Amino acid sequence: MHRKSRLDERIAACSDIVKIADMSEKDMRISATVPDLLPLSEIFGNGNPIHLEIGCGKGGFVAETAKLNPDINYIAVEKISNVLVEALERAKAEKLTNVYFINCAAEVLPKYLSEGSVSRIYLNFSNPLPKEGYKKQRLTHPKFLDMYRQLLKDGGEIIQKTDDRDFYLFSLESYRSCGYEIFDVREDLTADPVEGDVRTEHEKMFISRGKNIYRIAAVKK
């Protein structure tokens, strides 16, 4: 992907709605233990529930979902600045007051979000990383699910969508092994939709190709 024109300048113009990760510590395991917690009540100006999307891409899902749910605050995470800039500019253009962004990798989220601060996590079409050697990097690997447990309130939910059946099956097993309760499963979301669910850019593409969309909803017990 070519670096976008005036990327740093464009991101700086959106500085009021984004936290840029501190990259001074290259070891993410260490960085995650050094708090730089976001003052969420100051950012949003209220105490509404927080929903977190990990891997927001160009921001289509979070923008449309935020407009449908003005009484929920959304934090959207994207580690690739070249992609994130489009989400930032969309949120600014549409004057979304209940969306904030973090430019960081998922591994360091505990640095920025306090324990029990999140009511729901969205994992939309995360990279399935099918090779066995990469499975610890999958966003539903137990190491991530343990981190999400720290961020989630009691009764907090994870909503996952994927077009990859093997990743779907891997994720089901991971949720169960980590003590989450699975309360809803859809193996063809197009034929069996969920009210209020917003389709992502990738989801629309996969549907146009005739692919099944798998959805899992799990709760922290």
Structural summary, described in words:
- By secondary structure, the protein is of the alpha/beta class.
- The protein has one domain (7-220): Vaccinia Virus protein VP39 (Rossmann fold), CATH 3.40.50.
- It is 33% helix and 23% strand.
- It has helices spanning 7-12, 28-31, 40-44, 60-68, 81-93, 109-112, 142-151, 165-177, 201-208, and strands at residues 18-20, 50-54, 73-77, 99-103, 118-124, 152-162, 180-186, 214-220.
- It has an eight-stranded mixed β-sheet, sandwiched between helices.
Short description:
With 221 residues, this protein is an alpha/beta fold. The protein has one domain (7-220): Vaccinia Virus protein VP39 (Rossmann fold). It is built from nine helices and eight strands.
Main attributes of the structure:
9 helices; alpha/beta; 8 strands; 8-stranded mixed β-sheet; Rossmann fold; 221 residues
The value of Rg in angstroms is: 17 Å
**Straight-line distance between termini:** 41 Å
What is the tally of beta strands? Answer: 8
Low-pLDDT segments, ≥5 res = none
Report the principal-axis shape. globular
Q: How many domain units? A: 1
Enter the CATH topology name: Rossmann fold
- Strand order across the biggest sheet? 1-4-3-2-5-6-8-7
Oligomer: single chain
The CATH superfamily is: Vaccinia Virus protein VP39
Along the chain, the helix and strand elements come as HEHHEHEHEHEHEHEHE
Question: What portion of the residues fall into strands of 2 or more residues?
Answer: 15-25%
